[in-house]
Specification:
Elements: E1 2-7, H1 11-23, E2 29-35, H2 38-47, E3 53-56, E4 59-60, E5 63-64, H3 66-71, E6 78-82, H4 86-94, E7 99-101, H5 106-119, H6 131-149, E8 159-164, E9 167-172, E10 176-182, E11 185-190, E12 195-198, H7 202-208, E13 214-216, E14 221-224, E15 228-233, E16 239-243, E17 251-253, H8 258-266
Parallel strand pairs: 1-2, 1-3, 3-6, 6-7
Antiparallel strand pairs: 4-5, 8-9, 10-11, 10-14, 11-12, 13-14, 15-16, 16-17
Helix pairs in contact: 4-6
């Protein structure tokens, strides 16, 4: 049974990850602590032996988790759990630093743990990595931090491949009015009122399209600005969107997203 540490400032996300780790069979783990801040993590590493593996969110309430490495020696392997911008994720991937994109699912967790097993195949449970790998990891983390401070423009998709009967068609992003989920499937709707199933979740699509043009109104809808025909005040401080060629369920901007939506509209 390996000892795992979770550094995460969102209680629900921390609880979900703990449950996923306990349920998975790939690498038996015991979560020894859930810590919500850089300060708490630094105190833990100063007072307790390093765990066998740690899961770090990037952006915590009191700073970036990179600051933990600047204050205390962390010699265990790290897997990041993050909803951070795509350019940061590319930095981790290029430097072979694993990450899990929130909301975490079992498949992504299993793949990350498979990599963890490969990297630690020669180590016994309870052993930590040597200082040399830790120094190398810190150097890679510092490179990623530089990209966070001086980001490059991320590349977004220009088109999506869809299947029409026995044919394939590429739909340009500018022709898409919105993406939505329905009965565990995801669809795109075009400006000429056609719907097509696609092999992405709404969460994945949010990372793939330009946020200047698309906004995540709620868990189920990602909408293009030019498809919004009207915006109406709704109950509980929410907003109702009237979308072109959409006459099905109401599309509401969830209350916690209203402020960001207003900023997005204001450009």
């Amino acid at each position: 049974m390996l000892r795992a540490l979770i550094v995460e400032d969102e209680p629900l996300a921390a609880s979900r990850l703990t449950r996923l780790l306990q349920d998975q069979q790939e690498v038996p783990m015991q979560v020894v602590a859930q810590l919500p801040s850089v300060q708490d993590a630094v105190a833990f590493f100063r007072e307790e032996p390093n765990p066998d593996i740690a899961f770090f969110d990037i952006q915590l309430g009191d700073g970036l988790s990179f600051q933990i490495f600047e204050q205390v020696a962390v010699t265990c392997p790290i897997i990041f759990t993050t909803a951070y911008d795509a350019y940061a994720l590319r930095a981790f991937k290029a430097n072979s630093i694993d990450y899990l994109l929130k909301p975490i699912d079992n498949e992504d967790l299993a793949q990350a743990l498979q990599k963890f097993k490969r990297l630690t195949a020669t180590a016994l449970p309870g052993q930590n990595t040597t200082s040399a790998p830790a120094d190398a990891s810190l150097q890679l983390l510092q490179q990623a931090l530089q990209q966070l401070q001086h980001p490059t423009a991320p590349a977004y998709k220009n088109r999506f491949l869809i299947k029409v009967g026995e044919h394939l068609r590429a739909v340009p992003v500018e022709e898409i009015d919105f993406f939505y989920s329905f009965e565990k499937a995801t669809f795109l709707q075009t400006e000429d009122n056609r719907r097509f199933a696609i092999d992405y979740t709404v969460e994945q699509l949010e990372q793939l399209v330009d946020p200047k043009h698309f906004f995540r109104a709620n868990r189920g809808y990602l909408v293009q600005m030019h498809a919004i025909q009207d915006i109406i005040h709704y109950t509980n401080s929410r907003l109702k969107l009237v979308l072109r060629n959409h006459t099905q369920e109401e599309v509401l901007v969830s209350r916690e997203r209203v402020a960001a939506f207003r900023t997005w509209l204001d450009g």
